[in-house]
Design brief:
Blueprint lengths: L2 H13 L7 H50 L4 E8 L4 E9 H5 L2 H16 L5 E9 L5 H6 L4 E3 L5
Helix pairs in contact: 2-4
Length: 157
């Protein structure tokens, strides 16, 4: 089909009753729309993926900072497990040695965590730390069922 014919058909379609369509032009328009939609979705998915990855990295850095505060206070954290609530919100479950959990150092650690959260939480990122004493046998299947799936090995060990 020549360019003149395409122009003529397109003009005719725009001037005539909407019930009369040139099928080849409609197919081309539909294909262009679908291609544009797919490209737009790919860009959106990539942007969301990059946003999530950057927030995971931020959660990792903050968790490392909290772990350092634990060590400085003599507070023994046996394990940290991350739960992604959504693209910007995270919970970190800290499994603490029972004696440390019951010690006075807990007050210092909680204060440090509040300061760290205040400095880092925003509309784009939110992190919360939950502490649980290690009281012997822990059923990790229950923890996993609550969404805490990513175990973290701190760099400072």
């Amino acid at each position: 089909m020549s360019e003149a014919q395409i122009f003529q058909d397109d003009l005719l379609n725009s001037l005539t009753n909407p019930n009369w369509k040139n099928e080849s032009i409609e197919v081309a328009k539909s294909k262009a729309y679908n291609d544009g939609f797919k490209k737009g979705m790919n860009v959106k998915e990539l942007a969301l993926k990059n946003f999530f990855i950057s927030n995971i990295e931020k959660a990792t850095l903050i968790s490392e900072e909290v772990y350092k505060k634990f060590n400085e206070s003599g507070f023994i954290c046996k394990q940290m497990i991350l739960k992604a609530i959504d693209l910007k919100s995270f919970d970190v479950l800290c499994i603490i040695d029972k004696e440390s959990y019951l010690s006075e150092a807990r007050k210092i650690v909680y204060k440090s965590i509040r300061e760290i959260k205040k400095a880092n939480n925003s509309n784009e990122f939110f992190i919360n730390f939950l502490m649980m004493p290690d009281g012997g046998e822990i059923d990790y299947s229950l923890i996993k069922s609550e969404g805490f799936t990513l175990k973290y090995e701190p760099k400072t060990r």
